[in-house]
Amino acid sequence: MPKVVMTFPEGKYKVLTMSYDDGRAADRRLVDIFNSNGIKGTFHINSGLFGTGDRIPENEVAELYEGHEISAHTLTHPTIARSPKEQLVHEVMEDRKNLEKIAGYTVRGMSYPNGSYNTYIKEILPYLGIEYSRTVNSTGNFSIPDDFLEWNPTCHHNKGLMKLADNFVQLHKKQYLYMMYVWGHSYEFDNDQNWDVIETFCEYIGNRGDIWYATNIEIIDYINAFRSLKFAADSQFVYNPSALSVWLSVDEKIVEVKGGAQVCLAEEEGAVIGLEP
């Protein structure tokens, strides 16, 4: 029986994702930094506050965040754990509707405004089309969460970022999957006058061949695609019913299972690893 484990795309075992809230003007500079270093971000936006103060105006959103993920942050940023369920539904659904008109795709994720959530909210969100939501509870580690509706990041960008980045880059044990998840608000770099923090980090960790740079929803979709794979009882072959390719390590050989394909996983007469039958 072949030994089969999931990898990230192209056989990678490390993923970096960035998460920034509120859609403020400083996102313009932050997006430029990400783009220059091949890094992807998820930007959680309150669509009911477009253009107020220094928030990005509605007509700029689609172009600014192209290539990144536009995600929900509720309509007006209330403390939702103190809100009635009717307000919660309104805040999430109206934010989704507004953002989807701009983005042109289904908005399926969010971050909790003011870090506010509880078990009741987590139970409701899937019925509102939300598949993940980020907290503000940093773990300091690189683990993959069990509960994506309580997605705890690795760190805020002001908390030991470069030490964690160096630890992440040095990881080499391929029997594990690692995720570095950084969160914050772009306006904090203006307030703290420390843009060098994120510039240095992105220059150091970006454009590396062994790291997958992904948005939050890309990670969700990839893991779901892996979970949807249909393996033979003896793992001799696998069928991928999803549209996404999934990469596997099969006896330490990297195999791509393309969307809609069935692939042999064991070397035996008439079956070659990685080839469709």
Structural class category: alpha/beta
How many domains, in number, for the residues? Answer: 2
* CATH fold call of the largest domain: TIM Barrel
Give average pLDDT, whole number.
95
User: How many strands, which pairing sense, and closed or not: the largest β-sheet?
Assistant: 6 strands, parallel
Unreliable stretches, pLDDT < 50, 5 or more residues? 269-277
Beta-strand residue percentage: 15-25%
Total strands: the figure is: 14
- Helix fraction? 25-40%
Rounded to an integer in angstroms, the radius of gyration calculated over CA atoms is 20 Å
Please give a structural write-up.
Residues 12-214 form the NodB homology domain. It comes from Mesobacillus foraminis. The chain has helices spanning 27-36, 58-64, 85-103, 119-124, 161-170, 187-192, 195-205, 216-227; strands spanning 4-6, 14-21, 41-45, 69-72, 109-111, 132-134, 155-156, 178-184, 211-213, 230-231, 237-239, 246-250, 253-257, 262-264. The chain has 277 residues and is of the alpha/beta class. The protein folds into 2 domains: 12-223, Alpha-Beta Barrel (TIM Barrel); 229-277, no CATH class. The strands form 4 sheets. Strands 2, 3, 4, 7, 8 and 9 form a 6-stranded parallel β-sheet that branches. Strands 1-12-13 form a 3-stranded antiparallel β-sheet. Strands 10-11-14 form a 3-stranded antiparallel β-sheet, with no helix packed on it. Helix 4 (119-124) links the parallel strand 5 and strand 6 (132-134). The longest helix is centred in the middle third of the chain and has 19 residues, at 85-103. It is globular and about 60 Å long. The model is unreliable at 269-277 (pLDDT under 50).
